[in-house]
Specification:
The protein is mainly α. The chain has one domain. 70% of the residues lie in helices and 0% in strands. The chain has four helices and no strands. It has helices spanning 10-28, 35-51, 55-75, 81-98. Helix 2 (35-51) packs antiparallel against helix 3 (55-75) and helix 3 (55-75) runs antiparallel to helix 4 (81-98). The two termini are 15 Å apart. The chain crosses the membrane at residues 60-77, 83-102.
């Protein structure tokens, strides 16, 4: 997914995908979540869609997911759906942060 003027890297594609999925999960309430957590998912989804357009911002989004949702998951005392989703989102942030952009194909 690249052209001479615009390159869309793997971290950016992962960020866009994560943002869209977070937005969908928050909007559709697939897991019967707490309404406050749904608002967080909607905000994180919009933030992912917006931050996907630059590689540096996509990496920052991954780092924010890793730190924010990792701290949330570690602070919970019992196993809940929100805790599981927090761990999943933190791991997704780790993948976005560590993903390497694709090498440019030879012309």
């Amino acid at each position: 997914m690249s052209s001479d003027q615009f390159q869309f890297t793997r971290p950016q594609a992962l960020t866009l995908t994560a943002g869209v999925l977070q937005l969908a999960f928050g909007w559709l309430d697939l897991f019967g979540l707490d309404p406050n957590y749904r608002v967080v998912q909607l905000g994180v989804g919009v933030m992912g869609i917006v931050m996907a357009w630059r590689l540096g911002l996509a990496r920052m989004y991954g780092l924010l997911l890793l730190l924010g949702f990792g701290m949330l998951a570690l602070s919970l005392d019992d196993v809940t759906t929100e805790g599981f989703l927090g761990v999943r989102t933190a791991l997704l942030g780790l993948v976005i942060t560590l993903a390497r952009p694709a090498k440019r194909a030879p012309s």
